[in-house]
What does this fold into?
Amino acid sequence: MTSRYSRCSWVDRYCRQEKMIPHSKLKGKTVAIIGLGGIGCMSAQLLARSGVGKLILVDKDKVELINLHRQILYDELDIGKPKVKAAVAKLSAINSTITIYGLNMTVTKDSMRRIKADLIMDCTDNLAARKAIAHHCAKKKRPWVFATALATKGMVKAVMPGEDWFDSTFKGKHGFHDVKSKGVLNAGCNAVACLQVSCAMKLLAGKKVSSSLILLDVWDNKVEKVLSNP
Amino acid sequence: MKVFIEETNKKAAIRFEGTARQLLKRLKINPATVLVARNGKLISLEDKLSDSDDIKILEVFMGG
It folds into this structure.
């Protein structure tokens, strides 16, 4: 062990979170983070720092300059690199004690078969990918946490196995605004990620999680819940 | 009926009875782009509303 760790041991690394979530609840778990954009970068970083045993990172894109204002895992030297490659490198430097691997792939019902995880974080940016995640989690009876952001707003929901929520809620939805038309505030999408990770921590710890849809607006300082059971 | 439209951040008090879909038509809002919550719960567009309801019309978005 190098001298920079002389003030604490590897065991003490997670001591500040032990009262909320014992590390024993995280170290044996695998979490897949699907999408490494504004939400995914923060979610992946928080989960890595918390010591989740294994992270699977999924994205198909390369880092662009316009990502840097909100996608906190990347810097200027990463521009042009596959996001998965850049993210694995950054997170491995943050926490070398966990297993992190990346899948550079488009999310489809077929490609999701490659994901074997205890929990899935939906940090994607399109309806088709989210449908594929919902389908996969229903089939594999896995919980997942939906998270989305636009402008200054966000939505987060923990979806439990057996809960037919996504298809029944978003069936027929199309033509809505996206980041090109409305933009996205970095504080907003990162706040959404924090809420998403909070839900994830509770799920991993086996704690009760609200099934409500959480609505957030960082500009108006609003957080509210809407019941969302079909 | 109290109505809050998230996209414009506007509130209104209107007299209305009918389905959520009919309310959106009256407000000239595309139903494919919103979710409707009645009294704190998401509902389908075919659910009937009453004049005493508290309605929120929420934007759909999928950004990540």
